[in-house]
Design goal:
Elements (H helix, E strand, L loop, with lengths): L2 E7 L2 E8 L2 E4 L6 H14 L9 H9 L13 E4 L5
Length: about 80
């Protein structure tokens, strides 16, 4: 199923962008921030939008019981805010 980021103004949809789901996987020694930076390097080489490290990221990571400077356990998958094309 496609995922979209939708912009709503005054209760009306004014734009919708297709978005690519993104997740990182904990390795037991790198922080969430380091894993995202590594993923961004790979995404940029492939011509894809980088994953923003912002307030939305803090909220999503917190839903997984983590913070940006926390080290997720090996194998833990964290779904991140979606970069849109």
């Amino acid at each position: 199923m496609p995922i979209h980021r939708v912009l709503v103004l005054d209760g009306k949809v004014v734009a919708a962008l297709p978005c690519d789901p993104v997740e990182i996987e904990g390795d037991g020694w790198r922080t969430v921030r380091a894993l995202v930076e590594h993923a961004n390097a790979t995404r940029l080489r492939a011509g894809l939008a980088p994953i923003a490290i912002d307030g939305a990221m803090d909220v999503v990571v917190a839903r997984h019981g983590l913070a940006l400077d926390a080290v997720p356990p090996q194998g833990m998958r964290v779904v991140l805010p979606l970069p849109c094309r």
